[in-house]
Automatic annotation (TrEMBL):
<dbReference type="InterPro" id="IPR000792">
    <property type="entry name" value="Tscrpt_reg_LuxR_C"/>
</dbReference>
<dbReference type="InterPro" id="IPR036388">
    <property type="entry name" value="WH-like_DNA-bd_sf"/>
</dbReference>
<keyword id="KW-0805">Transcription regulation</keyword>
<feature type="domain" description="HTH luxR-type">
    <location>
        <begin position="852"/>
        <end position="917"/>
    </location>
</feature>
<dbReference type="InterPro" id="IPR027417">
    <property type="entry name" value="P-loop_NTPase"/>
</dbReference>
<dbReference type="Pfam" id="PF00196">
    <property type="entry name" value="GerE"/>
</dbReference>
<dbReference type="Pfam" id="PF13191">
    <property type="entry name" value="AAA_16"/>
</dbReference>
<dbReference type="InterPro" id="IPR011990">
    <property type="entry name" value="TPR-like_helical_dom_sf"/>
</dbReference>
<protein>
    <submittedName>
        <fullName>AAA family ATPase</fullName>
    </submittedName>
</protein>
<dbReference type="InterPro" id="IPR041664">
    <property type="entry name" value="AAA_16"/>
</dbReference>
<dbReference type="InterPro" id="IPR016032">
    <property type="entry name" value="Sig_transdc_resp-reg_C-effctor"/>
</dbReference>
<keyword id="KW-0804">Transcription</keyword>
<keyword id="KW-0238">DNA-binding</keyword>
Length: 921
């Protein structure tokens, strides 16, 4: 039979245009009637891209091109593919004549009852399409045809047999290396006299090298080996990997890993089952072992492994990069992962693998099956060191707890077990809280463990147990020296439960518990919330962070670190908080084995980034916080990372994503805690962006009411609720109420630092006369520049440009407007720069857009300093004043900069220079 086989032998210049290099039948001449094309290739090798290219070329040649995509999940949907194709024809000019029985199926009111009815309906539809094609030739493009439903496959089978007598062309994609449920259709295609076949496959190492150089430049040619090893020449993986390298310098789960996952989810469940088993075990396994792990037969598993290798996704059952394996693990449901770990532990034990490997699988399984002999568990416990990672510690503590016969000792062990589990997932530690609370009331639990239990209950929002345990501790004479620390912790979490007490003269001796760091951290934060930031609170907060860096006092480290960092953040010392997060604490964050510590650190980083206007980073950090620890593990503290994520998404213009997070269920106790303020403030801004001004105002005012009721209105506000409420009033046109709130903010004894003052001045300008606005806004610009808050700086600059425009200072207004747009673009504030740059004004877009090839590396240090300030819109005189040089020197530097960058105007200076400007601030 005449089958034309074409193999791709040329690399793509750019992966997004891959089809342009493959050649296809819709070239310079129209397609011949009755032509069929089969694009064959493994997973993610460009079949879908090529299919779409054919459809586009066919449309250009005068064809009516309709497409359909087959999916394993829709294989049981009768005529699912037919519905996609028929709707495409119906929507075309002239449409498809009525086909008896088809309309009811398309509208979901009828299903074909038997094979005879399917055959009759397929015949009618084929006849109708052939008749329709007499007027307008058709191209039917079907992706992943082997996943098609049987009824649609019957129709396609009839159509292929009649193609040579019709003005219809058909293009199909398939992977011939895999079995297909619709075998008759595949065989009919292969025996068709009019079939043209294109075979695709992974790129060779040489082709990958060409793509790497084309995408990343000649200097990246040394990466070819790593890129080929990580992708195997697979086009989809190659595309996302190069994007990861270009944007982040390394493969990421969010890019490379997600692309890998997408290939699995588009195919039969067995693909995902096999790869998940390999991800859990961490090494390649023979098909027989994988069959035992997954429950599938060895033969189809062997086919899956061959397909994954042929596509370049895996290397004979081994992951090509750890990001892919981690992506699979993170995508896996928890129960499925635990089941696989249990099966893997049994498999490896039967094979005589090392005990430490078996122990890790047992720990990650969540529980040890009863079928495991006690001597095996003892062997594992002897070979694994306590403290190697919290999960191993949990396993060993559980065994000790189950075997200990003494009640008091069991209570202490259970407290330590809860503490170890807390570092992994606070949700799992809650199972110990009820028996531990009973042990406290029975006098079997020591004071240090009782206080640690209280901290865990505060985090999880168990208010009933908190009040009962608090009453017990307040009545316990032995706890007298601890009560100040306890009340400080309450002030940080549930201020309405706290009783203000005078701090004891000395914290030492018996008063110092095993969790001695967090009482001091809680006291520092409580002092900031009630009295504001001082040099003493900064010093004490850094002392706490320094001890945490050294690993002192393992209990409650997460809460202690969060308290100390928030004390700096609320007091406006973003610089110090950021330095601790990025420096010492970041280096000792515990890694993946201590997820709660990583989650808390990510949440603090998100809040810091948000207050600096680094919106993309804030969103990324918040997502990381919610990834390291599930929402359930966060308890009432979920308000902190969730609020940061909602606010960051809102300011980036991602309102749909922000709305999704607003709709998430949160604990009711969160709204009684200080963490709820972050959530309310973020939700208020989401409502404001959605033009729900009354709802936004209610959330902002509720923050103020809660702080007042809690007695925290005189210290540093965790969130600038007055600013938010003033914005809501302004959005409703009520300048008087907005001005009242702004003056209240400015008159506070603790103004929460320069950032809050800058926000107040910006809003005050909005309620002031046109002549006064530039003065107020220029002062706010200086404050935000000093604070490095790019988001607020962009908003203020835009307001300033409008103020200049109102006064007739057109040149100054344009310069300030450009500076505002650049800053907004730099901090990913799409909600701002998309509003400022209308889509129908290309001239303005050209003026604001920087040149893509900047070449700033050719500038000297002095030239970069001058150019960075000029890129921000400063005049030569202003730059000279900031750098303590003459205006003539500035002019000479800029002349050389323009020559090196091949530009003529300041407006063409690249926005990348803004990073240099922030270093100078």
């Amino acid at each position: 039979m005449p089958v034309n086989t074409e193999r791709n032998s040329r690399p793509t210049d750019r992966l997004r245009n891959a089809a342009a290099h493959l050649g296809h039948p819709f070239g310079d001449s129209p397609v011949r009637p009755g032509q069929a094309l089969l694009v064959d290739g493994p997973l993610a090798c460009g079949k879908t891209t090529l299919l779409r290219s054919f459809a586009e070329r066919a449309s250009e040649a005068g064809y009516l091109a309709v497409t359909a995509t087959c999916s394993p999940s829709e294989r049981d949907l009768p005529f699912g593919v037919v519905c996609q194709l028929a709707r495409g024809v119906w929507k075309s000019p002239g449409g498809l004549p009525e086909v008896p029985g088809l309309s009811a199926i398309l509208h979901g009111t009828s299903d074909p009852a038997d094979e005879a009815e399917i055959a009759r309906l397929s015949h009618r539809l084929c006849t109708s399409l052939i008749d329709h094609a007499e007027h307008t030739p058709l191209l039917l493009a079907v992706d992943d045809v082997r996943h098609g439903d049987p009824a649609s496959a019957h129709f396609l089978l009839q159509l292929v047999r009649r193609l040579d007598a019709a003005r219809i062309a058909a293009v199909f994609t398939d992977d011939l290396s895999l079995p297909a449920p619709s075998l008759p259709l595949r065989y009919e295609l292969l025996r068709s006299q009019s079939l043209r076949r294109i075979g695709l496959g992974p790129l060779t190492r040489e082709q990958v090298s060409e793509v790497v150089v084309a995408e990343l430049g000649e200097t990246a040619s040394h990466r070819t080996g790593d890129v080929y090893a990580a992708t195997g020449g697979n086009r989809l993986l190659l595309h996302t990997l190069l994007a990861d390298y270009g944007e982040h310098g390394e493969p990421r789960q969010a890019g490379y890993g997600q692309s890998f996952l997408s290939c699995l989810h588009r195919n039969e469940p067995i693909f995902l089952d096999v790869v998940r088993a390999l991800a859990v075990v961490g090494t390649s396994l023979p098909a027989a072992d994988l069959a035992w792990l997954t429950g599938h037969e060895p033969e189809p598993i062997g086919q899956v492994l061959a397909a994954l290798t042929g596509a370049g996704l895996m290397d004979k059952g081994a992951f090509r990069h750890e990001a892919a394996r981690l992506g699979v693990l993170n995508d896996m449901p928890a129960q499925a992962r635990r089941t696989l770990h249990q099966r893997a532990a049994r498999l490896l034990h039967d094979q005589g693998r090392p005990a430490t490997t078996i122990a890790r699988h047992l720990v990650r399984a969540g529980r040890i099956p009863d079928s495991w002999p006690a001597e095996v568990l003892l062997e594992v416990a002897e070979q694994v060191a306590v403290g190697e990672e919290p999960s191993i510690a949990v396993d060993l503590l559980e065994q000790s707890f189950e075997q200990c016969p003494h009640e008091e000792r069991r209570a202490a062990l259970q407290a330590k077990l809860a503490e170890a589990e807390w570092k992994i997932n606070p949700s799992t530690a809650t199972r110990h809280h009820t028996p531990l609370y009973g042990a406290v009331r029975a006098g079997r639990l020591g004071l240090p463990d009782s206080v640690t239990l209280l901290m865990q209950l505060l985090w999880k929002g168990g208010l009933t147990d908190v009040e009962g345990l608090l009453a017990h501790l307040r009545d316990d004479p032995a706890a007298t020296d601890q009560l100040h620390a306890i009340e400080a912790a309450l002030t940080c979490t549930y201020p309405w439960l706290a009783e203000r007490r005078t701090a004891p003269a000395h914290h030492g001796g018996s008063a110092v518990t095993r969790a001695a760091v967090w009482p001091r951290a809680g006291t520092v934060l409580a002092d900031v919330l009630t009295g504001g930031q001082t040099h003493d609170t900064v010093r004490r907060a850094e002392e706490v962070l320094r001890e945490l860096q050294l690993g002192h006092d393992p209990a409650c480290q997460e809460q202690a670190g969060l308290f100390a960092l928030l004390a700096l953040v609320y007091g406006g010392r973003i610089d110090l908080a950021s330095a601790w997060c990025e420096g010492a604490l970041g280096e000792t964050g515990g890694g993946p084995h201590v997820p709660m510590r990583q989650a808390v650190l990510a949440a603090a980083r998100s809040e810091i980034a948000l207050r600096r206007g680094d919106l993309a980073e804030a969103a990324e950090r918040a997502r990381a916080a919610l990834t390291h620890a599930s929402p359930g593990a966060w308890g009432v503290a979920i308000g902190l990372p969730l609020g940061s994520l909602i606010l960051a998404c809102t300011r980036m213009g991602r309102h749909e994503e922000a709305g999704f997070h607003v709709a998430q269920t949160v604990p009711n106790a969160m709204f009684k805690s200080s963490y709820g303020l972050h959530y309310l403030y973020a939700r208020g801004h989401y409502f404001l962006a959605a033009n729900r001004h009354q709802a936004a105002l209610a959330d902002f005012l509720l923050c103020g009411e809660l702080l007042t009721d809690w007695g925290l209105s005189s210290g540093c506000d965790p969130v600038p609720w007055r600013i938010g409420a003033a914005e809501a009033w302004l959005a409703q046109g009520n300048h008087d109420q907005a001005r009242i709130l702004v003056y209240q903010q400015l008159s506070r004894p603790h103004t929460d630092g320069a950032r809050a003052r800058g926000q107040s001045l910006r809003l005050l300008a909005a309620t002031s006369s046109a002549k006064r606005r530039p003065q107020l806004l220029n002062e706010a610009v200086g404050l935000f520049t000093e604070q490095e808050d790019k988001y607020e700086l962009a908003r203020t600059l835009w307001d300033l440009s409008q103020a200049y425009h109102a006064l007739g200072e057109k040149k100054q207004a344009r310069r300030t407007m450009r500076r505002a747009w650049h800053v907004a673009k730099m901090c990913d504030a799409a909600s701002l720069y998309e509003e400022w740059l209308p889509a129908d004004d290309p001239s303005q877009a050209t003026a604001l857009m920087p040149k893509s090839d900047t070449g700033i590396e050719r500038l000297t240090h002095s030239e970069r300093r001058v150019a960075s300030l000029a890129a921000m819109g400063y005049t030569n005189r202003e730059i000279a004043g900031k750098l303590y040089v003459t205006a003539s020197t500035v002019e000479q530097h800029l002349t050389r900069v323009f020559r090196k960058l091949d530009i003529r105007h300041r407006e063409q200076l690249p926005t990348e220079l803004y990073a240099d400007r922030m270093e100078l601030a």
